[in-house]
Specification:
Radius of gyration: 24 Å
Strand order of the largest sheet: 2-1-3-4-5
Oligomer: single chain
CATH superfamily of the largest domain: NADH-ubiquinone oxidoreductase 51kDa subunit
CATH class of the largest domain: Alpha Beta
Distance between the termini: 77 Å
Bound molecules: flavin mononucleotide, iron/sulfur cluster
Structural class: alpha/beta
Number of strands: 16
CATH architecture of the largest domain: 3-Layer(aba) Sandwich
Strand content: 15-25%
Length: about 525
């Protein structure tokens, strides 16, 4: 029987020479005249082990990693095709603690299947959610999503079912489904991993959203920095179209739905839903005032569902296994699972999908294994560039929208970036203001002007110019930005700035070197 060897084609693995590893494996197969084939799968998300190569043996899949091109010959010599032992042997992937401790619902297939094989997708429960949705009324689909407790995974945490109901109830000759795949937050990669590793689940989720709301056209707005995700999604859409999942009659039903990929130019603000819609319409991405909500007047002024990749990719399992199955996971009003992305200065970075409720400390110390540098963890930024910095004292905060908000933080798209004790928090606060100044769409004054003034004030603190007066100005500025900005870019920048100031005040005092020089 032909042995299947899995070499991820995910961007993270490719950045670590997965293509060269695949080529070397291919060469050995030919030279040694072996009956084996290479599958380019997605990543399992254990990024420190990439490229993680897996071999399908009669006893199940066995993993080896991280594999460099130079390791390939020795893997064949160790007979890894039969599961032979090698210094890179990792055993069964499911037994690696980082994977064993996860609850994979949205990422159930990622890293397991061939991303572009519909056969593989179906064999791993693919399309079951869509098939169930096709037997239901639009209102019943919306009710199932509402009852599941699913909240938007893009950042705002708005209940997905309520958004869908607004679009279902809106009158209009044409409705749209727009998938937000701009993924601009620092340290986040869940959307990319889904698109590269399991693109059909996103297509299925968008098709279910379309049937639930009466939309017939969809767009996936992907940032240009994601060339592999763009290529895989485009191919997957074509495969789905050929198989009758997309087109005039979704899986032979009376519902029509088709979609296409649109590529953004890479402005952070174009991830904000209304700026994204402007960009999708071919305009410069500027934030629109709300109301009207996109659900009433969105793309081209028509009722539009706009959801994040992970939100949409979580819908098929909800329809397949039921609202209760999904809502049984989680804590408080944060139901289901969250694909947490662990990055920065960590030993074990990657994607960790878990039910809401684990504490930040468990994630950083246990799951991520502390810092890669071996130095103590000093700060963790959660929720992207607009998220707060958490000190060790707040490591008991559970991963839950409300718990983070109660501590002036946000879960956002669930990216966590870890820093060791060499981090300069004044510099991080400056970075937040500078980021806002660069990425501001310029529509409102608190954000456009406030962020520039913020950089100047922090620079004066760094130069030790009347620090108490500068801190008073900084606090005042942050309040103006928080309450006076039109969108969350200007409105949330105070989170990283004020959390740095509140939890790490020692970095906002004159350094001994500066004092001595005066
Ligand atoms: C400045 C800014 C950038 C944003 N970037 C993204 C993004 O990259 N991806 C995303 O899904 N949502 C992003 N959002 C949130 C979107 O505006 C919107 O809430 C989301 O697409 C709704 O989908 P959801 O309900 O499924 O989360 C951003 C918001 C702001 C204010
Ligand atoms: S807060 Fe900033 S990004 Fe948002 S609308 Fe105002 S200027 Fe534009």
């Amino acid at each position: 029987m032909t042995v299947r060897i899995f070499v991820p084609a995910d961007s993270a693995a490719v950045a670590l020479d997965a293509d060269e590893v695949a080529a070397a494996i291919g060469k050995e197969i030919v030279t040694r005249n072996l009956d084996a084939t290479i599958v380019r799968n997605g990543s399992r998300g254990l990024l420190w082990l990439e490229p993680m190569v897996e071999v399908e043996t009669p006893g199940g899949r066995l993993a080896y990693g991280p594999v460099a091109p130079d390791d390939v010959a020795s893997l064949f010599e160790a007979d890894f095709l039969s599961g032979g032992s090698h210094r890179l042997s990792l055993g069964r992937p499911e037994d690696i603690p980082f994977l064993a401790r996860q609850t994979r619902l949205t990422f159930a297939r990622c890293g397991i299947t061939d991303p572009l094989s519909l056969e593989d997708y179906r064999a791993h429960d693919g399309l079951k959610g869509l098939q169930k949705a096709l037997q239901m009324t639009p209102a019943a689909i919306v009710e199932t999503v509402t009852n599941s407790g699913l909240r938007g995974r893009g950042g705002a945490g708005f209940p997905t079912g309520i958004k869908w109901k607004t679009v279902l109830d809106a009158a209009g000759p044409q409705k749209y489904i727009v998938c937000n795949a701009d993924e601009g937050d620092s340290g986040t990669f869940a959307d990319r991993m889904i698109m590269e590793g399991d693109p059909f689940v996103l297509i299925e989720g968008m098709a279910i959203a379309a049937i639930a709301t009466g939309a017939t056209r969809g767009y996936i707005y992907i940032r240009s920095e994601y060339p592999l995700a763009i290529a895989v999604m485009e191919q997957a859409i074509e495969v789905a179209r050929m198989a009758g999942i997309l087109g005039k009659s979704v899986l032979g039903s009376a519902h029509a739905f088709d979609m296409e990929v649109r590529v953004g130019a890479g402005a952070y603000v174009c991830g904000e839903e209304t700026a994204l819609l402007d960009s999708l319409e071919g305009k410069r991405g500027m934030v629109r005032a709300k109301p009207p909500l996109p659900a009433h007047q969105g793309f081209l002024g028509r009722p539009t569902v706009i959801n994040n990749v992970v939100s949409l990719a979580s819908v098929p399992v909800i329809l397949d296994k039921g609202a209760e199955f999904y809502r049984d996971f989680g804590l408080g009003r944060s139901r289901g699972t969250m694909p947490i992305q662990i990055a920065g200065n960590v030993r074990h970075g990657g994607l960790f999908e878990a039910a809401f409720g684990m504490t930040l400390g468990e994630l950083v110390d246990d799951i991520a294994g502390g810092t890669a540098s071996g130095r103590p963890v000093r700060a963790v930024q959660v929720g992207g560039p607009l998220g707060a910095y958490f000190p060790r004292a707040l490591f008991d905060t559970p991963f839950d929208y409300e718990a983070f908000a109660a501590r002036d933080g946000l879960v956002g798209h669930a990216g966590i970036v870890v820093f060791d004790d060499t981090v300069d928090m004044l510099h991080q606060a400056r970075f937040a203001m500078e980021f806002c100044a660069i990425e501001s769409c310029g529509k409102c004054t608190p954000c456009r002007v406030g962020s520039v003034r913020g950089v100047e004030v922090i620079d004066r603190i760094a130069k030790n110019v009347d620090i108490p007066a500068q801190i008073a100005v900084l606090e005042d500025l942050c309040n103006t930005m928080k309450y006076g900005s039109l969108c969350a870019l200007g409105g949330f920048v105070p989170y990283p700035v004020m959390s740095a100031l509140k939890h790490f005040p020692e970095d906002f005092r004159p350094t001994p070197a500066v004092q001595a020089a005066e």
